[in-house]
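If you are new to this repository, start here. Below is one unmodified record pulled from the training split, so you can see the exact layout before writing a loader.
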Amino acid sequence: MSENNKQSINKKHKHLPIYGVGPVYGSVVFALTVAAFFCRKLPAFSAGDLPDVLQYTFISIGILLIALGVYMWIQAVIVTKLDDGIKENRLVTNGIFAWVRNPIYSAITIACTGALFIIGNWLFFFLPFLYWLLLTALMKNTEEKWLRDLYGKEYCDYCKRVNRCIPWFPKKH
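And here is the target side for that same chain:
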């Protein structure tokens, strides 16, 4: 049996989990962001408080990032109907998925980064980098492997065009 026939049969009988590793990633990122919120006023973190003159700028940026995260989540889940794509065993590459391969995870990261900006303590600004590292490690070791096994070249070509977690203009190939 050829490799294409095997992939075709496998695609008919299995698909990605509806939720994937999302609840784990989202819970960890959310918990770290909430912990930063509660720790922000502890004496040990007072040195990181931003000057009052910067507070409104960072709050404004934070609100914009949260709004962007919510927008991306709505685009991924509701507008592109990701659940339908998963149930129909179809690789979703349109809409927001043409700009970023993992828009739901990116939305969580961006919204939580926005909350950190609103918190206004620079000592917590390392967290978005930690979120990105966690997301990258999680995706490479779970969903990307699943998608590569399930969709083969189609997914590999998609990966060449679209960033993993930072929304950007798709590359032309």
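Two things worth knowing about this chain: The chain has a mean pLDDT of 88. The first helix runs from residue 3 to 13.
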